[in-house]
Known about the structure:
It is a single chain. Helices cover 49% and strands 17% of the residues. It has 489 residues and is of the alpha/beta class. Strands 10-9-12-13-14-11-15 form a seven-stranded mixed β-sheet. Strands 1-8-7-6 form a four-stranded antiparallel β-sheet, covered by helices on one side. It starts with a helix and ends with a helix. Residues 458-489 are annotated as: Disordered.
Amino acid sequence: MSSSSSSTESHIATAKTILSTAASVAATVMVARSLVNDFLPSEIHDFISTGTRRLFSRFSSQLTMVIDEFDGLVNNQIYEAAETYLGTKVSPSTRRLKVNKSDTEKNFTLTMERGEGITDIFNCIKFDWVLISRHVESRNFHNPGDLNSTLRSEVRSLELTFNKKHKDMVLKTYLPFIIEEAKSMKQETKALKIFMVDYENMYGSPSDAWVGTNLDHPATFETVALEREVKELVLEDLKRFMKMKEYYRKVGKAWKRGYLLYGPPGTGKSSLIAAMANYLNFDIYDLELTELQCNSDLRKLLIGMANRSILVVEDIDCTIEFHDRMAESQEDTGRRNKKVTLSGLLNFIDGLWSSCGDERIIVFTTNHKDKLDPALLRPGRMDVHIHMSYCTPCGFRQLASTYLGIKEHPLFEEIEEVIQKAQVTPAEVAEQLMKSSNTETTLKELVEFLEYKKENQELEAKKREQESKGKEEEQRKKKDDEEKVEKVE
């Protein structure tokens, strides 16, 4: 018993000695560190710190990559992408975050605060990220991305630490993955804009040729009054297009898609474009061709457009005369340079200049498809032709659900029967559905409106038929008179 007790006392004494020695060493280190910080110049201090890190790194399996916020005077794409990506990797242990929101974004953005670390697991591999921020004493320091940088004098960088053996995978797979993820995240959260041509700055920088404002159009594929088959066609085509980046590169084509929306006014062409923009989260660029002076203007505008956008050319049949291509070659050079020609437009949408950008949708609208030159209609220019027809029973039910919030009503059958006979646009039906807050009254008034439209259209049809018969009779009579004159002669 005594030997056991003495052994325990010996172990306790040894432990006390070890703890005392460790405390003395720690105190010595702290004193030494304080002396170094207080009396040695910062340059020597940095040199010692760097040397110490290098010494330990030789015996460590870890590798640290430093990603600065700026590369010279330009933004570092990797830093921006990582900052966006890591905002979604916040863990319960994270204590400090920065919250931002700009006019170009729909939601709040979370980013790391300086000194904070985040761990990310990618392909079962652990990656440690730390945001490092250091102050610069120079008064001439300037951060081009921060208007207040001369006051803050702050340089930020991200440090990525991982096992050395994964270096190639980080460069070839992990960082490219982060860049693509960040692009998708920014695309999903950005506030949509609609751009128009700024003719005063037309001949300056290409990016200044467009001026934009927020697009708050609420149209979606759920609210647009289209036949179900047409909606499914457009949706499936858009989904397929978005997944075909590598295929377009493989076959050597610009990554773009052309749509032609044709049909009478008021059939929902603009609403469908807005629904496409909301679905893809693409900005809209509205181009008015009649305001352009020459083909080179088209090229400048194309260069000034951002990727992931929709270019809209409305009423293409009414803007410029494109029919007579032979006439273009006969005009003198001076006149030809003062207008947009069909060949210029074709080169704009399907020529070499069309490759200046990726992930673009080009939408043309017209009320008269038959007036367009066949060269515009072929695949590669207008790939998908969508007929925007008069309101159908399916379209009416969609409008009733959207505007009145109802799926069924005893008057639906009567309305659908009349709507198949009357040529009425979805815009006209929507206007009628907004006239009263009482559902019963609204639907009864809609029936009266449809009956009135049908009767008027029948009268107009009879009138046109009579006029046509009168013209035929007049032509026949004129022909008979001419034959009589010939016989007399």
